[in-house]
Amino acid sequence: MDEKKCLIVDQGAESIRAGIVPDASPTFNTPSIMEGTKLPLISKNNITSFDGLESIWLNIFKTLCLDPIDNDCFFINNGLTPLSQQRTFIEILFEKYRFGRVLFANTLITTLYSTGGDTGLVLECGYSNSQVLPIYRGYAISPGTVQSAIAGFDCTEFLMEKLQMLEKTNITLCSAKDIKEKYGYVRMSKETEAKEVVMPDGKKITLNEELWKCSELLFNPTSFSIEALGLAKMCFKSIKRSDIDTRKDLYENIIPIGGTACFYGFNSRLRSDLQKMCPSMNIVVQDQEDKALTSWIGAYVIACTEVFSKLTINKGEYKERGTNIVTRFLMY
Ligand SMILES: Nc1ncnc2c1ncn2[C@@H]1O[C@H](COP(=O)(O)OP(=O)(O)OP(=O)(O)O)[C@@H](O)[C@H]1O
Ligand SMILES: [Mg+2]
262 C-alpha to center of ligand 1: Å? Predict the structure, then answer.
């Protein structure tokens, strides 16, 4: 039996989640910011400070009691990290921390493993990006990738600006994010709901359109004069780029993931918008229990199978090919 430990890290732009197999969900969660500051460690898909990231890794090793030497690590992220940074990444993991085996994967791909199926249209709506990838019988249809730079951060910023105008006070991004996650929702029809919201200073105010407009950005960006595709249009475009024989199965297996997909009403609206675009199709949007953790759980499923050792890069391969080996990473 393999006694090696496997560390799984989902390195997102808003938060970093980690855990060690056989724990089936991450036991470590921290914001992706430089220790003691508010500076982001990942900005526009670029790692801003490897030192800052490493101090988080050291914290992970300590908290999870992991000595990296000769153990395995499995890093997942949204797949948009530049190749040059992936090279630095693998160099640090092998040379400095001396991991035995390393695997990098895209969260859109690991997601599918958490569903138990092999076909689906994965729609990730995270912190700074939204993206769609069709996967058919285990194969990612890369030309079907559709991306947009509208995601959770934009929803928070929009709400913050609205609240600042309304309250004439300097509400922070952090407070706006809390209000968004607690009271925000996706509108289904013209009928909307006013809600009493408790502000950070304890004051109660009634909000209405602010609470759904912040998510409307995702579904209908052009109505805010933002040049981007709405989420349903992204899915539609992605499926249209896939082979005609795969389309029915993709429409019947739409899998939203990421923190921003946790907005109340997200799945129903996505389904309804897509149904209007393709009335003859049966649209099924899968409901994941915790959309923010789905990709980590998929990575855990991979780590528990024999496939894992076939996909990983080991020390010997790294020594032979150096950082060029990054191009062999699983489906980037
Ligand atoms: N209940 C909720 N309703 C609406 N938005 C939410 C909710 N929970 C989390 N979010 C938003 O999800 C976003 C973070 O998503 P997620 O955790 O998927 O990002 P990440 O993995 O850190 O980053 P990346 O985009 O790089 O994958 C934040 O903008 C956060 O405010
Ligand atoms: Mg993520």
Answer: 8
Q: Is 79 left (phi over 0), alpha (psi -120 to 50) or beta?
A: left
Closest CA to 97 of 109, 105, 89: 89
**pTM, to two decimals:** 0.96
Q: Which atom of ligand 1 has the smallest separation from the CA of 153?
A: 29
Residue ranges per structural domain of the chain: 6-108+292-328, 111-150+228-277, 152-219
Question: Which pLDDT belongs to residue 257?
Answer: 98
Give the CATH class of 111-150+228-277.
alpha beta
Query: Of 263, 264, 271, 261, whose CA–CA distance to 294 is shortest?
Result: 261
- For the domain covering 6-108+292-328, report its CATH number: 3.30.420.40
**Which numbered ligand comes closest to the C-alpha of 160?**
1
Specify the 3-state DSSP secondary structure of 255: strand
The ligand 1 site (C-beta within 6 Å) comprises 12-15, 78, 126-129, 152-153, 156, 177, 180-181, 184, 258-260, 262-263, 292
Task: Establish whether the linkage from the previous residue to 22 is cis, with ω within 30° of 0.
Answer: yes
> Domain 152-219: what homologous superfamily?
ATPase, substrate binding domain, subdomain 4 (3.90.640.10)
Per-10-residue mean pLDDT of the chain, 332 residues long, equals 86 98 96 93 95 97 98 94 92 97 94 94 97 95 96 98 87 95 94 89 92 97 97 98 97 98 98 97 95 96 93 94 80 50
- In three state form, how does the secondary structure of 96-160 look? HCCCCEEEEEEHHHHHHHHHCCCCEEEEEECCCCEEEEEEECCEECHHHCEEECCCHHHHHHHHH
Please, are residues 238 and 134 in contact by the beta-carbon 8 Å criterion?
Answer: yes
Looking from the CA of 226 toward its CB, the CA atoms found within 13 Å total: 17
User: Taking the CA of residue 187 as centre, how many other CA atoms within 13 Å lie in the half-sphere pointing to its CB?
Assistant: 19
